Amino acid sequence: MLPSQRALFDIPRDVCYLNAASYSPLPIRTMEAGRAAVGRKGQPWTLPASFAGQQNERARTAAARLINANPSDVALTPSISYGIATAAKLLTIPRGTRVIVLENDHSSPVLEWHARAKAQGFTVETVRQPDDADWTSAVLAAIERSGAAPVSLASISSVHWSDGGLIDLDRVSAALRRQNALFLIDATQGVGVMAMDVKRLDPDFVLFPTYKWVLGPYGRAFLYVAKRHQDGIPLEQISAGRRDVRAENKVYFTDLGYVGDARRFDMGERDYFISMEMASIGMEMLAEWGTSAVVQRIAMLTQRIAEGVRGLGVSMPDTGLRAPHILSLGFKDGMPAGLVEGMASEGIYVAPRLGRMRVSPHVYNDEADADRFVEALTRRLRD
Question: What are phi and psi for residue 314, nearest 5 degrees?
Fold first, then answer.
């Protein structure tokens, strides 16, 4: 089993950080790269002309590797919301159809469609958060509901942020394909830990940022665009998205045709090489460890915690229904006031999410962290 990687992070021994689903700490290598990059920006004359382009392609390649995509099918974006706005501009949702979203999903894969529904004549159907935590069955039931308007798109997360609910992407994809419907996946809470193969799954769009599970900074995200959608108009019009608009040319606007792949959808001001290099490092580390090793490591920790809290009267989704790297604890009479804050006062960091306690370890955690969490929660619930 992959051992704890705590030594690669600046995490004091008295800190028990179990909140990767909110923000990940940065590896020491990443912090050092960020400091060096700031220095380069302070002396830009030291940079070769090829530097920014090389950084962009390094990040694009690292992101593609995590989802088994071709780098040419991945666009550089600043956020999930930017990527979804790009996808929405590329799609025509037919009037009278349904767009399926998840209840309490993060705002990005939901609000774009609400904003467009009235003008474009489609409806947004919300799949309610299931009491039994079986998100997959709930989504399939919505897709296949008899007598309902046709489904044109499912815009959903692969793992629900609030309860760690796991969506079976293969089953959902197959159901959508039978309806000739599109599939947009917000993989924020999955990529880097859980394997994703876009060549096999063949979704229309996949999006993920770097500031959570892939150990990177804010302001960096990636959009996979299936080749069948790569002939559309980007959200922004930038020179890098055109075949030959270059300051080095004698004629600036030499060729206004778009480049022929997902690079046309890159964000403006993409040459922000400070955080671009930082994003690359975390993704490359995860690829080197491999998703199977990473998920095995984290699943061992969440299972250790789950077994440790069983006698405390807390509830949690069944193992087969939750993502292996997120444990969501429910309380019969609601989460006690001040519980999360009290844990933080002891150096144990988790997150309150929709009335539950979300515990999300990563490769920097170890068995001592899991046991410390169980001991502290047991003491506080029994006092």
Answer: -95, 155
Residue 217: phi and psi, rounded to 5, are: -90, 170
Contacts of 32-41 with CB under 8 Å at 24 or more apart are: 33/277, 33/278, 33/281, 34/217, 34/274, 34/275, 34/277, 34/278, 37/273, 37/274, 37/275, 37/277, 37/278, 38/274, 40/273, 41/273, 41/274
Residue type, 123: T
C-alpha to C-alpha distance for 297 and 282, rounded to whole angstroms: 17
pLDDT at 272: 79
Pair of tokens at residue 149:
């308007």
The superfamily in CATH containing domain 6-18+290-382 is: Aspartate Aminotransferase, domain 1 (3.90.1150.10)
Q: Split the chain (383 residues) into runs of 10 and give each run's mean pLDDT.
A: 97 98 97 94 92 95 98 98 98 98 95 97 97 96 96 98 96 97 98 97 98 96 98 96 94 96 95 89 98 98 97 93 97 94 98 96 98 97 86
Tokens representing residue 41 in the block: 């920006």
Residue-level pLDDT at 383? 78
Q: For residue range 208-239, list pLDDT tens digits in order.
A: 999 999 999 999 999 999 999 999 999 999 99
User: What letter represents residue 182's amino acid?
Assistant: L
Domain with CATH 3.90.1150.10 in the chain: 6-18+290-382
Domain with CATH 3.40.640.10 in the chain: 37-287
Whole-angstrom CA distances from 188 to 14, 93, 108, 208, 282 are 28, 24, 11, 5, 15
The tokens of 321 are what?
């229904």
What is residue 47's three-state secondary structure?
coil
Confidence (pLDDT) at 382: 87
Under the phi-then-psi rule, with left for phi > 0, alpha for psi from -120 to 50, and beta for the rest, what region is 130?
beta
Question: Model's pTM, two decimal places?
Answer: 0.96
Q: Please state, in angstroms and as integers, the Cα–Cα distance from residue 334 to each residue in 152, 339, 355, 373, following that order.
A: 38, 11, 6, 19
- Rounded-to-integer distance, Cα 322 and Cα 159, Å: 8
| Structural fold of domain 37-287 | Aspartate Aminotransferase; domain 2 (3.40.640)
Q: Report phi then psi at 55, rounded to 5.
A: -65, -40
Cα–Cα separations (whole angstroms), residue 276 to 46, 69, 187, 215: 18, 19, 19, 13
Sign of CA dihedral 50, 284, 75, 236: negative
